[in-house]
Amino acid sequence: MRKLLLHYLWRSPLTEAAPAPSEPALAELGAKVDQAARRRLGRSLSIREVDAGSCNGCELEIHALNNAFYDLERFGFHIVASPRHADVLLVTGPVTVNMREALERTYAATPDPKWVVAVGDCGRDGGVFAGSYACVGGVAAVIPVDLHIPGCPPNPIQLLEGLLALLQVQ
Amino acid sequence: MNATSVLLSILNAGQPVAEHRPWLRAVVTSEIWNALIQGLAEGTWTLLGLWGEAGIVHLAAYEAPINPPGASRLPPLPKEGWGDFIVASLPCPDGQFPSVARLHPPAQRLERTIADLVGLRPVGAADPRPWLDHGRWPVVHPLGTVTPRTDPQPPYLFLTAEGEGLHQIPVGPVHAGIIEPGHFRFTANGEAVVRLEQRLGYVHKGIESLLIGATLERAARLIGRVSGDSTVAYALAFARAVEAATETVVPTRAHWLRALMAELERLANHCGDIGAICNDAAFALMLAHCAVLREQVLRASAACFGHRLLMDCIIPGGVVADLPTDGVKILRALVADIRRQFPPLIDLYDNTASLQDRTVNTGFVKPSLIKQFGCGGTIGRAGGRAFDARRDPGYPPYDQLEFETPVLTESDVNARIWLRIHEVEQSLALIDQILERLPSGAVRGELNRLDQPGEGMALVEGFRGDILVWLRLAADGTVARCHPRDPSWFQWPLLEAAIENNIVADFPLCNKSFNGSYSGHDL
User: Fold this and answer.
1) CATH assignment of A43-169, given 3.40.50.12280, 1.10.1760.20, 3.30.450.40, 3.90.220.20?
2) Which of B57, B78, B103, B209 is at a distance of 20 to 30 A from A145, taking alpha carbons?
């Protein structure tokens, strides 16, 4: 183990430069997000991920945000295990009927002020699963959404561009 | 096909369905149905799937060949050495069928699903509780006679475990990590788990209903999102089933590119899983390094095929696009890179006693259970079951490639990690061979006979195990019915057995070593 640690100590980091915040995300947030909440939450955000019926594709790419290339934590984002610790809910999936109550309860358990980011094409309007008897169709149909990050699934850069917009203080 | 197979001779007594390909499907009587159940219960055959549609249930089964192919480095077996695959269909005019799970427990959740979705009742079933239907959908029996829900469903009763000092720990559906939702009900005595009961169905999206009447293009997109981590394997299974139904011959280069994508998917997932399992034993260093390997595979995939997870790259008839001119170079560099970075990580795992202390002997699954459940993939092969769909039934180009199907017998978390390590090595070797010998030519062709009804079936080895797709095409070329069966159906129940007598704190470790799919299972 020591050899491996030493070896990587001498190497330059894999972490890449940050992308610029996405313009559409800034525009969507500018219209919605409360400046007072923005000041209170500051530049460090705790994120709770909620899978509300995703195919697991979005989860894989959200996971990737934590790898050495993207290193999400350098921006002040931290993924937490409980909604009670969270400032941001990152919600994926078309919201299945069977997950609706769990999502509502998770939202209720998250302290104010809080933001909701709907991830993926499913999170926007149900995506390919729209119209099913088993899907509500879009996160905004169940809880208020502050930001949408489209894509099927959005890649880690697109996720970062969206999340960084949350930190962009006007 | 083995001419002397008992399975085939039993099925031949039924009425064969002419347009079903490539294997035999026959409409059977309840006598034949019961004989099949008997054979499944005795372990003569393996259950591959059980699904229904209005008024009929279908059962897919497999009879292993005398020489199980793939136990070690074997040349392709002669044709008569392969196992047999069949589908038996039992009409249910009175809305019920003799329960398979009555004698063969692996069928239980599948039967409960048939009751939920189609409304056919398994007679004699021990567990009458619903499975995917949580009483929340606006309709009942969405795949049968669809009717609006009128009565509320009674509360779901978990199985009891009673005794002094026992307490329950409910977990989920929202879990503490970035993972899919499901509910686990633990009954523990202090730290030791006495019983685990799973409740799944939270991510049921109604995919099978959405597939009915879908064009092939839309159906391929849906199937590619049954389980996002296995999108290549699902798309491949769907494409192969469509091609079987339409008797389409796919260009050779397309077969090879499909296998290339399938091995990239296996590589990415196994790399991620090896790291994630170690991370659940609080050994984050391994996750950090394995996540880098996974990211490199995804980036190479995006550079070669335009999508990091390779979604929508395989379609019925071939693949969407050819490798770019620098594709071979990119993938060769990837393989070389992983070959350089992976061995020190294996050493790291092998030489960290504190980590192995957590993984060795943890989450043991009896090989007899693995055989009974027909459990495939890394869990099956880490527990002595050599089944690998790339060999049996086999599909091109794997018949022309040299690879081993690693098999271990320890059946614990450690064995499941080692099996993934061995499979990473095999996938690298396969990618090497594919790049070396990639034939030239077209990458997609036209589908035959889209103006006639037909039925097709395919079994494909995903990173998690064998994925079955069965479908019927309508005369207008749309999907009349399609049933995808995830390997997790036969793996989730074994997790309940694996955790028994382990401590609660080892559950994440056991669960991650299984890495069952919630979305693929819940559909």
Assistant:
1) 3.40.50.12280
2) B209
Nearest CA in chain A to B309: A57
Q: Does A123 touch chain B (CB under 8 A)?
A: no
Which pLDDT score, from 0 to 100, does residue B81 have?
47
Q: Would you tell me which residues 1-30 of chain A have a C-beta closer than 8 angstroms to some C-beta of chain B?
A: 1, 3-5, 7, 14
Chain B within 8 Å of A93 (Cβ-Cβ)?
Answer: yes
Beta-carbon contacts below 8 Å between A and B: 148
pLDDT value for B8: 85
Q: How many CA atoms lie within 13 A of B310 on its CB side?
A: 33
Structure confidence at residue B308 (pLDDT): 97
Q: Which residues of chain A have pLDDT under 50?
A: 169-170
Q: Mark yes or no for CB contact A55/B519 under 8 Å.
A: yes
Q: What is the pLDDT of residue B1?
A: 45
Residues A21-34: b if buried by 16+ CB within 10 A, e if exposed:
bbeebbebbeeebe
Q: What is the ipTM of this complex?
A: 0.92
What pLDDT is stored for residue B285 in this prediction? 94
CB atoms under 10 Å from CB of B126, counted, come to 11
| Beta carbons of A66 and B181 less than 8 Å apart | no
Instruction: Report pLDDT for B321.
Output: 93
| Predicted pLDDT of residue B120 | 96
| Contact (CB, 8 A) for B143 and B132 | no
DSSP state string for chain A: -HHHHHHHHHSPP-PPPPPPPPHHHHHHHHHHS-HHHHHHHTT-EEEEEEESS--SHHHHHHHHTTSTTT-GGGGTEEE-S-GGG-SEEEEESS-BGGGHHHHHHHHHHSPSS-EEEEEHHHHHH-GGGTT-TTB--SGGGTS--SEEE-SSSPPHHHHHHHHHHHH---
Cross-chain Cβ contact A1/B291 below 8 Å: no
Q: Which residue from A56, A126, A148 is spatially nearest to B224, judged by alpha carbons?
A: A56
What are the extents of the domains in chain A?
A: 43-169
CA dihedral A125, A128, A133, A134 (to 10 degrees): -80
Cβ-proximal residues to A157 (8 Å cutoff; 6+ apart), any chain: A19, A70
B26 phi and psi angles, rounded to 5 deg: -135, 145
| Full-model pTM | 0.94
The pLDDT of residue B66 is 66
CA-angle at B323, arms to B317 and B325, nearest 5°: 145
pLDDT of residue B244: 94
**pLDDT attached to residue B2:** 46
Radius of gyration of chain B (CA): 22
Intervals of chain B under pLDDT 50: 1-2, 69-81
Alpha carbons A168 and B130: distance in angstroms, whole number:
48
